[in-house]
Amino acid sequence: MSTLYLLHKPYRMLSQFTDRSAGAGERRATLADVIQVPGIYPAGRLDHDSEGLLLLSDDGELIHRISHPRHKQPKTYRVQVEGVPDDDALAALRRGVTLGDGPTRPARVRRLDASGLPERDPPLDPRRHPVTTWLELTISEGRNRQVRRMTAQVGHPTLRLVRIAIGPWRLDGLAPGEWRSETLHAPAKPQDRPAKGAMRGAKPASRGRAKPRRGR
Hints:
By secondary structure, this protein is mostly beta strands. About 10% of the residues lie in helices and about 30% in strands. It is built from 3 helices and 12 strands.
């Protein structure tokens, strides 16, 4: 039995518990500002300027199974991009685009009428970005800043990026800085491919919320 923590990482927060580069300057917000559970570590990361679902656990095997590329956990993002991507741009993302480190796998992508997300703090400046579009994009890779590079490659830079799902786990119901936990029963061995839903607990164990520090 393992416990998995689902956290909504706020904007301008590091995906780690300490700011190793703080030095004499101002410390940036870290995970320690919103979740105080001893011995847990993130399974993967989100960039400082990205938001959304981050999974954490004190079970090293579980972290490996979630984050290792071999297991190809699909990750879904809601992405606010500059301008209005046409059908050709979306088709290119679905086929896969060529980045500096090689071609990407095909992505699932669709336009959204609205993000369904809380407004970012601070919000985007509408004077600098008067025309934007929300996309929902699912990938099965984990390259550095991959989604941002993919949308830029088709001519529509990412302005805001929020991860809403990793495999079967979703951000649903969590505000920025909030978390909940799930108990996972009888996880499969690493060499086995888990059946659908096999890693999920039946009931959430607890919830938490802390007001995050604001990074600058």
